[in-house]
Structures are given as C-alpha cells and as structure tokens.
Specification:
The protein has 110 residues and is mainly β. The protein contains one helix and eight strands. Strands 1, 2, 3 and 4 form a four-stranded antiparallel sheet that branches. Strands 5-8-7-6 form a four-stranded mixed sheet, with helices on one face. The protein is globular.
C-alpha cells in the first residue's frame, strides 16, 4: 500500500526527439500525477501556445480511444482549440490535447 502522499513511481520515460522526460506517480485511489521536464520549455507563461513551467495542464482518462475521438470532436465543434491529436504518443498513450478557456492544456487520454 502506497499510503497517503506516498505514491509509487514508474521508470523514467524519455523522448529524445522532443527533449522530454517524465515520471508518473501513482496513488492508491487510482489517481496519477505526471512530473515532467522539457528543456525547451520557457520559464514564462506569456504565450499559451508554448509550454511553460508550473501547472499548465490536466489529463483525464476517458476509458477508450473511441471516447477520446468523440470528446475531441465535440469540443472542437463547440469552439475549443484542439492543439494535438488524437494520436498515439511515443510512450503508447492515445490522447488529444485541447485548450480550456484559460489556455490550460487538457489531455484527454484512453
């Protein structure tokens, strides 16, 4: 049992092409927190089209690739900006990325 705020961790994932690394911290409840590093990310949030340091995105698993597709299409139809996907990521996830009204990235994953 991981216990309160004592998550388990996966092995470090590294995508050399994008200069991106991350770990997933997994909690007993099923919640996961991704800790990421990307050297090209600027230290300012002045441009929401560029990633920046701090809390900038949330990811939600919706259960299936079909649901990722459906929700992404629905959000696009409602005027939300789709930044990426749906697509399969380098570490095997199926996801899309959409801006919320405050320009935070929302990852919709299977």
């Amino acid at each position: 049992m991981n216990g309160i705020f004592q998550p388990g961790s996966n092995e470090k994932y590294h995508n050399a092409k994008k200069g991106f690394s991350s770990y997933f911290l997994s909690f007993d409840t099923g919640a996961r927190l991704e800790i990421m590093e990307m050297k090209a990310v600027p230290g300012s949030k002045d441009d929401p089209y560029q990633q920046f340091t701090g809390l900038i995105h949330l990811a939600m698993s919706v259960g299936s690739e079909a649901e990722v597709d459906r929700l992404t299409a629905k959000l696009a139809e409602e005027g939300y900006e789709v930044l990426d996907g749906p697509r399969r990521t380098g570490d095997g996830y199926y996801e899309s990325v959409v801006f919320d009204p405050d320009k935070n990235r929302i990852e919709i994953t299977a």
